[in-house]
Amino acid sequence: MGQPVNIGVVGCGVIFAQYRKTIERLPELRLLAVADLDLERAREAVGPDADVEVLSVAELMADPRVDVVLNLTIPAAHAEIASRAIAAGKDVYCEKPLAATTADAARVLREAAAAGVRVGCAPDTVLGTGTQTARKAIDDGLIGRPVAATATMLTPGHERWHPNPDFYYAPGGGPLLDMGPYYITSLVTLLGPVTTVIGAGTRTRPKRTIGSGPRRGEEIPVTVDTYVTGVLVHASGALSTLVMGFEGAATKAPNIEVHGERGSLVVPDPNHFDGSVLLARAGGQGWETMPATAGHAEAGRGVGLLDFATSPSDQEPRAGGTLGYHVLDVMESLLSSAQSRSAVTVASTCERPEPVALLPAE
């Protein structure tokens, strides 16, 4: 085995701890350094671990030991940090979405191509046993030709638990850009790229009240749609109905269902790596629980970074920038459709990511 890939993290917010936990159990990766605009927050996030250096953003970008920059900043900063990493000659893996806009994301991909470096993008939950087992069932023909899917995410809103939820209700946020990447990435993994969308959206309140942390009780403005719904037309001909909202107390709808000519699947929550896949065969005896047959077992956030860092240079990673761009393009097109009240053609496309064989926990 060669030397581990050195990871430099920019952004030490809530999600950092989950990535760190995964990186530290993977021998192929090494957490070398972290940076944040608030150096004290970076120090607190690292704790007493003397093996992880706390640097300024500029120092981390300039450090020749850093192989890959893991970009965990807020969505509005994704493009800026990615561009800085690319300018420093480093591969960069971004939290979702790839950027706040497709224009920024396209610029990042152009810069990376010109510099000869690679861009990857979360979510990587689709590499777990949940979505991958469902994908294998589809590929094995267990439901016949896929015809349609539904994807539903409804919560009251993240301000209930997040101490600094402002960006969820600002441009680049909202339920679609926040949670949509999980669902749309899963739908593309299951059914292939999207060609056309038809959407609608609304918002019910001009302000939200923070429910936890030192800012509890503070009101923040809402400047994006907080309920977005629509239909995605896949290149395969399948139709996916999407519902994304911060406007529901709860729902009993499955996170994702896929319906084919000979059967139906219930796909587990794409915000998680595992979960039960249920199969109902036409003319069968109801739902059966499928054993895990594909994907990373007991995975955590960071397996996509592993796939990205260890993929051959001439191979598109499963959580690659092209897929991340297409998912962002689908979401932006859906919002555009909601505003114009007409169907919108999705300009981009991507290859359906390669499947993941069943891999034991490391």
From TrEMBL:
Tell me which residues make up the GFO/IDH/MocA-like oxidoreductase domain: 132-266
Going by the UniProt record, its keywords in alphabetical order are: Oxidoreductase
Whether Transmembrane counts among this entry's keywords is no
Kindly give the Pfam families that the UniProt entry links to this protein: GFO_IDH_MocA, GFO_IDH_MocA_C3
User: Signal peptide span per the entry?
Assistant: none
Q: Does the keyword Calcium apply?
A: no
- Name all Gfo/Idh/MocA-like oxidoreductase N-terminal domain ranges: 5-120
**Record-given protein name:** Gfo/Idh/MocA family protein
**To which species is this protein native?**
Sphaerisporangium dianthi
